[in-house]
Design goal:
heterodimer; A: about 290 residues; mainly alpha; ABC transporter involved in vitamin B12 uptake, BtuC; two-stranded antiparallel ribbon; two-stranded antiparallel sheet; 10 helices; B: about 350 residues; 14 helices; globular
C-alpha cells in the first residue's frame, strides 16, 4: 500500500507536468483550431532556458522559472507572428506542417549549441520527509503545488478577466467577434504567450525533477501531452488538465506494476479504448457536421 | 501543370527572351501531351536502372541516394492517398513501414536459406506489404467513426504501439533490432516497386473507389448520402496505403541492413508527412517531386554539417508561408491523368471562359 501511495505521488508529479504542456496545445487549438506541434519543442527550449539561467547566470529557483517562462512566452509570440499568422487563412494542414517545421528548427538549432545532454544542478534544497513509509521530497511538493496553482490561475484568467472573455469569444466564432471590436491578433498573441509560458514552466519543473536535458526531449513528451489534450477533449482547458493527470497516472502505474517496457503500449492501448467509447474526449463535445 | 493548349503562334512575341520561353513552353506541351512517351520513359528508366549498377556509371553513393529517393516516393505516394486524397491526417506511417520491414527481415534472416534469399526477394517484399496491409485493415476500423484530430491520435498511438510491441518481443531482437540483413534492395527492384506503387495508386485514385475517396475529402456526409460506401472506401484506401508503406519498409530494411524499433518512431513519420505536404496534397506528381526534392536537398546540404537540419525546416516553413499548398497541391502532370479526365477538364475550362460565371471546382 505504501508503494501505491509512493507511485501516486510520482503520478501526480508527472501528470501535472503533462497537464501544463497539454494546456498550451488546447488553448491554441481552441482559438485557432490549429495543432501547434512546435509546443513540445518550446517545452524543451524552456528546459534549456532553465539551464542557461541556472548554470550560466547562476540564478536561484524563482528567477530561473521567470526567465524561462518569459523567454519562451516571447519566443512563442514571435513564432506565431512570423510563421503562423501568414497562414491563418491557408488550409489547416499547411499550418500544421509549418508547426512541425518550426519544431524541427527549434530542436536542431538547440542541437547546434548543445550537442550533448546537459545536467541541471539542484536549485531547490531537497529535503525528504518520511510519512508512514512514503517518502515525500520537497521538490515533488513544489512541482505539484506550483503547477496546480498555475492551472487555477489560468482557469481564473480565462473565466474572470476581459482577456479570457475575449479568448472564449474568439474560440466561439473567429469571424464575427473581431467585428465587435475585439483585437484578434492581440488576443491570439496573448494566448500564445500564456500557453507557451506554461509549457516553459513545465520545462523548468521537468528539468528539476529529471535533471538531464537534451534537444530531442520535447518530441515524445510533446506528443504525449498532445494525447492528454485529446483525451480531455481538445479545446477544453479543464479537459486538458484532467487528461494530463490521467496519462501521468496510467504511465506511472503501468511502470510500477507491470514490466516498465509495457508502459507505452498499455498507455496508448488505453487511449484507443477510451477514444472508442468517448470519441471526442472526456469533456469534449462533438461538433455537428454540416452538409 | 495542366497548361492551356492555345497555339502560341497567334500571340506576338514581345522580346527575344519571351519568344524563347514560348518555344520551350510549346516543346514542353508537345512532350506533356504525348502520352506514348510515358511507357518509353519507363522502359528507358528500367533499362538504365539495370545498366547503371552493372557498369558502375555513377558511384555507389549516388546509387544509394537514388534507392532512398525511390523508397521515399513509395512512402509519400501511399501516405498522400490518406492525407491528400482522403483528407484525413494520418501521422503513423512509420508504423506500417515497421511492420513491412520486420516481416520481410524475419523472412530473409530467419526463415529462408541464405542462397535462396535473392530469388525470393520480390516475394519477401510482397509478404512485408501484405503484413502491413493486414495491420492497416485493423487501423481503418476506428476511422469509420473518428475523424480529424482524433483519427490523427489513433494513428499516432498505433505508431507508438507498434514500436512498443516490437520492443517487447525478444525473438525478433527486442529493442536491439535485427542486424545483418542481406543487402538485397537493388536499383532495378526499387525502380520496379516505385513504378508499381505510382501506377497502382494512380489507377486507384481515378477508379470509382478513388472518386469515393476524394468525395470523402470534400464532404463525408454528402458523399455518404450520394451512395458512396464510405466505410468500404476508407478500408480500401487504408489497406492499399499501408500495403505500399510495408513494401517501402521491406525495401528500406534491405538497404539499411539493420533495423531496430527506434528507426521507425514518430520522427520517421514526420519525415514522410513533410515530404507529402512539401510536394502538395492530392497529387502523385507532387509526391514524386516532394520525395525527390526533400531527399536530394538533405544530401546537398550535407556539407553544412549540423546546420543542415536547421536550414531544412527553415526552407519548409518559408515554402509553406509562400506556397501553402506545396509544390503541386491538387494539380497533376498530364501523363498521370486519364484521357477522359483530361478531356473533361479541357471542356470545363472552355465553358468557364465562355460563361465566366460558374466556379470550376
Amino acid at each position: 500500500m505504501t508503494y501505491f501511495f509512493q507511485q501516486s505521488l510520482n503520478a501526480l508529479q508527472l501528470g501535472s507536468i503533462y497537464a501544463l504542456i497539454a494546456l498550451g496545445y488546447t488553448m491554441v487549438y481552441g482559438i485557432l483550431t490549429m495543432i501547434n506541434f512546435a509546443h513540445g519543442d518550446l517545452f524543451m527550449v524552456g528546459a534549456f532556458f532553465t539551464f542557461i539561467a541556472a548554470v550560466l547566470l547562476g540564478l536561484p529557483f524563482v528567477p530561473t522559472l521567470l526567465v524561462s517562462m518569459i523567454g519562451v512566452a516571447l519566443l512563442g509570440v514571435l513564432i506565431e507572428r512570423v510563421a503562423y499568422r501568414p497562414l491563418r487563412n491557408a488550409p489547416r494542414v499547411s499550418a500544421v506542417i509549418t508547426a512541425l517545421g518550426v519544431g524541427l528548427f527549434l530542436e536542431n538549432f538547440t542541437l547546434v549549441f548543445y550537442p550533448y545532454p546537459q545536467h541541471i544542478p539542484q536549485l531547490i534544497q531537497n529535503t525528504t520527509w518520511n510519512i508512514a513509509g512514503v517518502s515525500i521530497s520537497s521538490l515533488q511538493i513544489i512541482i505539484i503545488l506550483l503547477s496546480v496553482g498555475m492551472m487555477i490561475m489560468l482557469d481564473l484568467i480565462v473565466r474572470k478577466t476581459m482577456v479570457g472573455m475575449a479568448m472564449r469569444a474568439i474560440s466561439w466564432d473567429k469571424a464575427i467577434i473581431p467585428l465587435m471590436g475585439v483585437p484578434l491578433n492581440l488576443i491570439v498573441s496573448a494566448t500564445f504567450a500564456l500557453g507557451t509560458g506554461l509549457g516553459a514552466a513545465a520545462g523548468t519543473m521537468y528539468a528539476l525533477a529529471f535533471p538531464v536535458i537534451d534537444p530531442y526531449m520535447g518530441i515524445l513528451i510533446g506528443w504525449k501531452a498532445f494525447i492528454s489534450a485529446v483525451v480531455g477533449g481538445i479545446g477544453n482547458i479543464r479537459g486538458a488538465m484532467i487528461g494530463g493527470f490521467i496519462l501521468g497516472t496510467v504511465e506511472i502505474m503501468v511502470a510500477a506494476f507491470l514490466p516498465s517496457t509495457y508502459r507505452d503500449f498499455v498507455a496508448f492501448a488505453l487511449l484507443l479504448v477510451l477514444l472508442i467509447f468517448r470519441p471526442y474526449g472526456i469533456l469534449g463535445k462533438p461538433r455537428p457536421q454540416k452538409v | 501543370m495542366i497548361m492551356d493548349n492555345t497555339p502560341s503562334s497567334t500571340s506576338t512575341p514581345v522580346s527575344k527572351g519571351h519568344a524563347l520561353l514560348e518555344r520551350w513552353k510549346m516543346r514542353w506541351d508537345r512532350i506533356a501531351n504525348n502520352r506514348k512517351i510515358f511507357p518509353i520513359v519507363l522502359a528507358v528508366g528500367f533499362i538504365l536502372s539495370i545498366l547503371v549498377p552493372k557498369f558502375g556509371l555513377v558511384n555507389e553513393y549516388v546509387q544509394l541516394v537514388i534507392i532512398y529517393i525511390g523508397i521515399n516516393i513509395i512512402l509519400t505516394t501511399s501516405l498522400n492517398l490518406i492525407n491528400g486524397y482522403m483528407g484525413e491526417f494520418s501521422v503513423g506511417h512509420a508504423g506500417f513501414m515497421a511492420v513491412g520491414a520486420y516481416v520481410s527481415a524475419i523472412f530473409t534472416t530467419k526463415l529462408l536459406p541464405e542462397n535462396l534469399e535473392a530469388i525470393y526477394f520480390p516475394l519477401v517484399v510482397l509478404a512485408g506489404g501484405i503484413g502491413a496491409a493486414l495491420i492497416g485493415l485493423l487501423v481503418s476500423v476506428p476511422s469509420f467513426k473518428t475523424r480529424g484530430d482524433y483519427l490523427a491520435i489513433v494513428t499516432l498511438a498505433f505508431n507508438m504501439i507498434v514500436k512498443s510491441v516490437i520492443e517487447n518481443i525478444e525473438v525478433i531482437g527486442g529493442p536491439r533490432g535485427i542486424p545483418g540483413i542481406a543487402k538485397l534492395t537493388t536499383l532495378p527492384w526499387t525502380f520496379f516497386w516505385t513504378v508499381l506503387a505510382i501506377l497502382v495508386i494512380r489507377n486507384f485514385v481515378y477508379s470509382n473507389y478513388g472518386r469515393g475517396v476524394q468525395a470523402i475529402r470534400e464532404d463525408e456526409i454528402a458523399s455518404d448520402l450520394m451512395g458512396v460506401n464510405t466505410n468500404r472506401v476508407k478500408l480500401l484506401a487504408f489497406t492499399l496505403s499501408s500495403f505500399f508503406a510495408g513494401v517501402a519498409g521491406a525495401l528500406f530494411a534491405h538497404v539499411l541492413q539493420f533495423i531496430s524499433p527506434k528507426v521507425f518512431d514518430i520522427i520517421k513519420s514526420t519525415d514522410v508527412l513533410i515530404m507529402v505536404y512539401l510536394g502538395g496534397i492530392g497529387s502523385i506528381t507532387g509526391s514524386i517531386l516532394g520525395a525527390t526534392v526533400y531527399t536530394v536537398l538533405l544530401e546537398v546540404l550535407r556539407p553544412f554539417g549540423m546546420w543542415r537540419m536547421v536550414l531544412m525546416p527553415l526552407m519548409l516553413v518559408l515554402l509553406m508561408i509562400f506556397r501553402p499548398r506545396g509544390i503541386m497541391g491538387l494539380r497533376e502532370f498530364r501523363w498521370l491523368i486519364p484521357g477522359f479526365d483530361l478531356y473533361a477538364l479541357k471542356y470545363w475550362r472552355a465553358k468557364k471562359e465562355v460563361s465566366h460565371g460558374t466556379p470550376a471546382s
